[in-house]
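Q: Please design a sequence for this.
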């Protein structure tokens, strides 16, 4: 039993940095580890895919127990809502002693900071293989070094919006301290901007600075992303969403009631398509215009120009790219949206809905 037993080691590290900031470093900017800890993490390079995407393959060179080691990891599940990501080792030194080795990381928000939970999931080659205690210690060191690095990092990632704040609160009449953190996360065809306001009031009856937050949030274009693996080839999946969009209603009739073309032709830029669908238990409609179509890279976009989404969002756009993978493909959907106001919720349920649609299309294609 010992030989076939999957085991775990766990560590938790407190950092002063917010959970979303630390998650962003490990998930979307994994190469930061080499910048933060150059004495022991020599390099981190991407071999396939893109940073921060499931299925991407990353190579690492690092020093463990005084020895220079290498590892090749595949990025596993990414849960952006729970700030969770995993890396499975598929090649390198670790697999000399272990049949399998996986890193699972979750970043938990806490008051004045966050806790990074790191779980090593491994299966030994044989019963006398030692537990990877030095690797868990190494994981601790890396997390702490990244935290220290993030404090110093000011190149557009974390900075203080001093002029903006002083323009509103020049004499510190209401707040003892006031700090505005700005995080810019590069994304394909743009970036995501996130603001965090930290303040200390002179008195309890001083109002929260909602107006400032509203001004920033109202002008903020944001993004949510999901990646879904399917066994079907990329060109087949792309063909459905681009050229045979009406097939989505056949694949998922319980929630997608109809998809009709109003202007143009299926699979052409500038065409207008109407959807009737069930979302959060409610019958909804949406009218989309087909945007850019890149047939070579299996990429297209749909911009919402009418319907229910525009009741809550000033703008709403879906960008899809289907990437070929060994034995299948990965469909990446990016939602690009601007809220009507600061208390409009992020369309997390729409991301889940997109996941369901993609999975249903995959199942539909298997039967075709």
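A: Design:
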């Amino acid at each position: 039993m010992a030989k076939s037993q999957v085991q775990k080691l766990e560590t938790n590290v407190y950092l002063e940095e917010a959970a979303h900031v630390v998650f962003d470093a490990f998930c979307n900017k994994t190469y930061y580890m080499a910048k933060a800890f150059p004495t022991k993490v020599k390099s981190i390079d991407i071999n396939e895919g893109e940073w921060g995407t499931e299925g991407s393959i990353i190579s690492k060179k690092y020093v463990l127990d005084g020895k220079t080691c290498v590892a090749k990891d595949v990025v596993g599940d990414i849960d952006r809502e729970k700030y969770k990501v995993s890396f499975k080792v598929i090649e390198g030194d670790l697999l000399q002693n272990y049949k399998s080795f996986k890193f699972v990381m979750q970043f938990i928000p806490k008051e004045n900071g966050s806790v990074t939970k790191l779980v090593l999931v491994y299966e030994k080659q044989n019963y006398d293989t030692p537990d990877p205690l030095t690797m868990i210690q190494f994981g601790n060191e890396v997390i702490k070094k990244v935290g220290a690095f993030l404090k110093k990092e000011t190149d557009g990632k974390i900075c203080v919006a001093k002029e903006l704040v002083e323009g509103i609160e020049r004499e510190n009449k209401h707040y003892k301290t006031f700090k505005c953190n700005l995080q810019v996360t590069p994304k394909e065809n743009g970036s995501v901007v996130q603001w965090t306001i930290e303040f200390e009031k002179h008195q309890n009856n001083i109002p929260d600075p909602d107006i400032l937050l509203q001004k920033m949030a109202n002008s903020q274009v944001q993004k949510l992303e999901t990646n879904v693996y399917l066994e079907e080839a990329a060109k087949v999946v792309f063909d459905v969403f681009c050229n045979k969009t009406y097939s989505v209603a056949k694949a998922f009739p319980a929630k997608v009631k109809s998809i009709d073309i109003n202007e143009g032709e299926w699979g052409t830029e500038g065409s207008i398509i109407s959807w009737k669908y069930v979302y959060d238990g409610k019958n909804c409609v949406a009218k989309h215009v087909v945007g850019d179509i890149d047939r070579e890279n299996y990429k297209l976009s749909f911009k919402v120009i009418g319907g229910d989404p525009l009741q809550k969002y000033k703008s709403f756009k879906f960008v899809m790219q289907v990437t070929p993978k060994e034995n299948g493909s990965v469909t990446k959907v990016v939602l690009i949206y601007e809220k009507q106001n600061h208390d409009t919720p992020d369309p997390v349920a729409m991301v889940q809905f997109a996941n369901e649609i993609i999975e249903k299309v995959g199942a539909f294609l298997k039967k075709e």
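Q: Thanks. Anything notable?
A: The radius of gyration is 23 Å. Confidence is low (pLDDT under 50) at residues 154-171.
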